[in-house]
Amino acid sequence: MRMLSGIGIARGTFVAAWRAVAFALLFILLSNAEGAADVRVLTVADGLPSNWVTALAAAPDGRIWIGTGDAGLYAFDPATGKGKAYRAADGLSSDAVVSVAVAG
User: Fold this and answer.
1) Among 58, 91, 89, 86, which Cα is nearest to 72's?
2) Which of 5, 72, 75, 88 has a Cα-to-Cα distance from 95 of 20 to 30 A?
3) Cβ neighbours, 10 Å, residue 78
4) Confidence of residue 38 (pLDDT cuts 50, 70, 90)
5) Most confident among 6-10, 21-25, 71-75 (mean pLDDT)
6) Are strands 73-77 and 82-86 parallel, antiparallel or unpaired?
7) If phi over 0 gives left and psi between -120 and 50 gives alpha, with beta otherwise, what is residue 91?
8) 3-state SS string over the chain?
9) 25-2-99 Cα angle (round to 5)
């Protein structure tokens, strides 16, 4: 069991806690969206580049920007169910995204 930064949290526990936070935030974002009637849990089977979600941000146009810990950024459009992935090869500084902010 590997410890993170000497704070006594096992890596598996830490990752599981962040996944729970990410799904809770996704639930809040989708349930507070105007006209939202359902909540969807997205995984790699739905097109996400990774199941390791580290950040979420809802854009004014309705898209949800999803940051991952190992596969970059994903812009998801709930209206169409489609999305686009962005990785370091596309210009991101890293595939590890720790926060997402939407301007405007």
Assistant:
1) 86
2) 5
3) 18
4) low
5) 71-75
6) antiparallel
7) left
8) CCECCCCCCEHHHHHHHHHHHHHHHHHHHHHHCCCCCCCCCCCHHHCCCCCCEEEEEECCCCCEEEEECCCCEEEEECCCCEEEEECHHHCCCCCCCCCCCCCC
9) 30
| Residue corresponding to tokens 């940051």 | 67
Q: What is the CA radius of gyration of the chain?
A: 14
Q: Considering only CA atoms, which of 77, 24, 21 is closest in space to residue 47?
A: 77
Query: Which residue in this structure is represented by tokens 């854009």?
Result: 59
Mean per-residue pLDDT, 63-88: 92
Query: How far from chain centre, in Å, is Cα 67?
Result: 4
Q: Report how far residue 55's alpha carbon sits from residue 26's, in angstroms, rounded to the nearest whole number.
A: 9
State both tokens at 37. 């009637």
